[in-house]
Design brief:
The protein is built from ten helices and 13 strands. The chain is of the alpha/beta class. The chain folds into two domains: 2-119, 3-Layer(aba) Sandwich (Rossmann fold), CATH 3.40.50; 131-288 and 300-326, Dihydrodipicolinate Reductase, domain 2, CATH 3.30.360.10. The strands form two sheets. Strands 8-9-10-7-11-12-13 form a seven-stranded mixed beta sheet, covered by helices on one side. The protein has a six-stranded parallel beta sheet with strand order 3-2-1-4-5-6, sandwiched between helices. Helix 2 (35-45) links the parallel strand 2 and strand 3. The radius of gyration is 19 Å and the shape is globular.
Length: 327
């Protein structure tokens, strides 16, 4: 299969490196509105470069369009690609609004083309191991879970678009949504949600959210309002009936009643291009899953458009609560 990337910034380049490692797909084009950025991507990855997505699709006829644009541009590019008979992988968050998400899903259904959204934490090895433990009940029922993701405001976005709440939606929608999505993936929809946080000129930038489930209390906490130079951290603490799984700035460790702690070993794949991640991790596994599903004719059952739309709905509700309290 042939893939093109539209949006050649940090995440577009990250995806470019992933395609170079995958079987069954070849990166064949790069698209960016800025000619110099498109040209640099084309030179670095050895592919033709374009400044217009429609022109690139017409010239290359790709099977896959990988959308790594600012969030407010996701709908336009996704619908255009789907209507051109391409499958679409779109970075998270799916869109700024539920109306945009609905239009993207409708276009996917009409075109009978796949749509997947880059909720990469569902594919990150440590989180995958946590979900396995919950699904298998290997440590008993999950009783308490804290999911954390925080850091300084990211400065690498083109023309600083992440700082514009009308384009990015703030740190809660752009960054914290990873962990909210994983909680929904792991446990389904909560019976209650209470969200509070921090708001500044860039929007709702930090959230402390409590999700209530019949057997489990969940805290989802994080965002990008820390001072410049602060470290980026992501991790979790999961407490079960008969053990715990902890990943907080060190290797994942599994604690079981009456047994020695276990530290699983996961393959690390160095990432290139800077940013706050030094391991391809979930980026590799999510795109491999997407390509494998397309190659084998399987449906997208993880991080599809419907699931991403549901996460967006909960995230918007979370932001509404924060703004009502702090905005």
């Amino acid at each position: 299969m042939k893939a093109i990337i539209v949006g050649c910034g940090f995440m577009g380049r990250m995806h470019g490196h992933v395609y170079g490692r995958l079987d069954g797909v070849q990166l064949v084009g790069a698209v960016d509105l800025k000619p110099d950025v498109a040209t640099q991507m084309g030179e670095d990855f050895g592919v033709p470069c374009f400044t217009d997505l429609a022109t690139a699709i017409e010239a290359i006829r790709p099977d896959i369009v990988d959308v790594c644009l600012p969030t407010d541009e996701h709908r336009r590019a996704t619908v255009l690609a789907l209507e051109a008979d391409c499958h679409v992988f779109c970075e998270k968050p799916m869109a700024l609004t539920l109306q945009d998400a609905d239009a993207m899903i409708a276009a996917s259904v009409t075109a009978d083309r796949a749509l997947m959204v880059g909720h990469c934490i569902r594919f990150w090895p440590e989180y995958v191991r946590l979900k396995q433990a919950v699904d298998r009940g290997e440590l008993g029922d999950l009783r308490a879970l804290t999911l954390t993701r925080y850091g300084a405001f990211p400065t690498w976005s083109s023309e600083n678009w992440l700082a514009n709440p009308d384009r990015a939606g703030g740190g809660v929608l752009d960054m914290h949504i990873h962990d909210l999505d994983f909680a929904l993936y792991l446990l389904g929809e909560p019976t209650e949600m209470h969200a509070d946080g921090v708001v500044d000129a860039r929007g709702a930038g930090y959230a402390t959210t409590v999700l209530t489930y019949p057997k489990t209390s969940v805290i989802v906490e994080g965002g990008w309002t820390l001072p410049a130079g602060s470290p980026f951290r992501m991790g979790f603490r999961a407490i079960f009936d008969h053990g715990a799984m902890i990943w907080e700035g060190s290797p994942l460790t599994i604690y079981r009643d009456g047994a020695e702690p276990e530290t699983p070993v996961f393959e690390k794949m160095p990432a290139a291009g800077g940013g706050n991640i030094d391991d391809l991790g979930g980026y590799y596994h999510e795109l491999k899953y997407f390509v494998d599903c397309l190659s084998q004719g399987r449906s997208i059952d993880v991080a599809n458009g419907t699931q991403a739309r549901n996460t967006l709905a909960w995230s918007r509700a979370e932001i509404d609560q924060i703004l009502a309290r702090r905005g």
